UniProtKB/TrEMBL annotation:
Domain of life: Bacteria
Organism, scientific name: Variovorax paradoxus
Protein name: VOC domain-containing protein
Domain VOC, chain residue ranges per copy: 5-117
Lineage start: Bacteria, Pseudomonadati, Pseudomonadota, Betaproteobacteria, Burkholderiales
InterPro entries given in the database record: Glyas_Bleomycin-R_OHBP_Dase (IPR029068), Glyas_Fos-R_dOase_dom (IPR004360), VOC_core (IPR037523)
Family matches, as Gene3D superfamilies: 2,3-Dihydroxybiphenyl 1,2-Dioxygenase, domain 1
Signal peptide (from-to): none
Amino acid sequence: MTSPRLQTLILYARNMRATAEFYCMHFGFASSLEVVEGLIELRATKGGAGLLIHQAAKSVKLGQAGVKLMFDVEDIEGFKQKAAAKGLAFGATHQANGYAFANAKDPDGNPVAISSRGFRA
């Protein structure tokens, strides 16, 4: 028996299309942006987990720090410059044990981060 693997994350959104477009524009996901079975599917074009965008119920509290999506980026400052040109501002770059990271928020206030941790020596 094989071990389960994380393949897909579901994100709840107030505006499904805006959230899907955000992840496509800034993090390279591909999508038709069509709502199928109540979900918008985003495919990771360079490997990694896919995302399903689901309509959030009014009772769902978004923007909490219970989950943060972290994307591996080798050149943090270069990525931040490209993201800023497309309207996404990351906070300060923080240095950790041999890697750097920076934080931002998606349209629903959910935390996202870029990190060079996966590329450290």
